[in-house]
Amino acid sequence: MEPFIVGIRFQKVGKVYHFDASCCRDLNVGDYAVVDTSRGRQLGEVIQLVEEPESPPEGSWKPVYRKASARDMVLRQIWQKKELEAVINCRAKAAEIGLEGVKIVAAEFTFDGQRLSFLYSTEAESKLDTRKLGSAMRRIYPRTSVEMRQIGPRDVAKYLGGMGACGLEQRCCSMFLTEFSPISIKMAKEQGISLAPSEITGMCGRLRCCLLYEYEQYVKARKVLPKRNKRVATPMGEGRVVDTYPLKLSVVVELESGVASEFPLEDVQPWEELEALKRKSEEPCAKHENGACDCQNNDQAAFQEQQPDEGVERPQQKKPRPSQRSRKRPSRRPRRKK
Fold first, then answer.
1. 271, exposed or middle or buried, with CB in 10 Å at 0-12, 13-18, 19+?
2. How far apart are CA 178 and CA 15, in angstroms?
3. S-S: 271 plus which of 98, 213, 231, 286, CB 3.0-4.6 Å?
4. Mean pLDDT score across all residues of the chain
5. CATH 2.30.30.140 domain locations along the chain
6. CATH 3.30.300 domain extents, the chain
7. What would the DSSP string read from start to end of 254-322?
8. In the 3-class helix/strand/coil scheme, how is 114-129 assigned residue by residue?
């Protein structure tokens, strides 16, 4: 029997994980299921039904324990309401212990309350010792397994939400980004964006995730568009490229008259290539000297002879029969003497 693989998400905008739901083949998109994870049993929402799953990275998919019941959904709501109280208690204990440089971002209970994870961030380069804080929180929640988990600045911005650096009411990472991709300063240079920190830095203090959105289109367009200050030929005459629009596949050319006009890529030809073809056509023939070359005329005449005239049937030429003299007689073998 083929495995029944489903994609499950544990957060509203989170990564989708694949699980084997062979024991619950009645699951549909929108249902909730209880699954076994590395952090215990969790409650997640079915996002997709995978028809042709790829091979799992770790040998096999983790199984779906069962379909979520109404009791599971009520328990989840009860423990979610206690998460804010847990954050307040953890912040108070961190201040009481004197743990500096730590920021408690959020707290997450599993749907049944058996596991509690505190998410924190720090700007210190060295690893922060949170064992005292974890021990203090275990005394407050003795029946719960407490975990202290450090997250990066991008995850902090995603959890907190708020307005984006570009002015959007909600940040991209809080709306639709399920995972973060690596961003480099090269992406901003390729798109011609100002390298001022206010232009390329997000609310998390890192390079903006949106630098990746159109990067591939810019790279493909740069390969076919002429570079700036290159001379090109246009329908309005020759000129110099002063600007390019990669997403529109067009260039702005300053003509010899001083007027700048925009032309699509198909109407622009490199001036250097045209000049090279022109010089090649004016060069003398390498077969004939002193300019007396009739290769082109001879080629045209030979081509016209090969083409039959329209409406005229050419008589078929009979192949000459070989003469008797030209025929070869079969050689006779010499007789052996008895």
1. middle
2. 5
3. 231
4. 84
5. 224-274
6. 79-151
7. EETTS-EEEEEGGG-EEHHHHHHHHHHHHSPPSSSSTT---HHHHHHHHHHHHSPPTT-PPPPPPPPPP
8. CEEEEEEEECCCCCCC
Mean pLDDT (whole number) for 309-318: 51
pLDDT 10s digits, 138-154:
999 999 999 999 999 99
Angle at 106 between CA 100 and CA 109, to 5 degrees: 130
Q: Is 55's pLDDT higher than 80?
A: no
In Å, what is the CA distance from 116 to each residue of 32, 57, 135? Answer: 21, 27, 13
Distance CA 253, CA 241 (A): 4
CATH topology of domain 224-274: SH3 type barrels. (2.30.30)
Instruction: Enumerate residues 6+ apart whose C-beta is below 8 A from 84.
Output: 107
Question: How far from 158 is each of 8, 182, 204, CA to CA, in Å?
Answer: 20, 16, 9
Helix, strand, coil share (%) of the chain residues, nearest 5: 30, 25, 45
Residue 197, both tokens: 């920190």
The answer to whether domain 79-151 has CATH 3.30.2010 is: no
Q: pTM higher than 0.85 for the full model?
A: no
pLDDT for residue 41 is more than 80: yes
**Alpha carbons 99 and 93: distance in angstroms, whole number:** 9
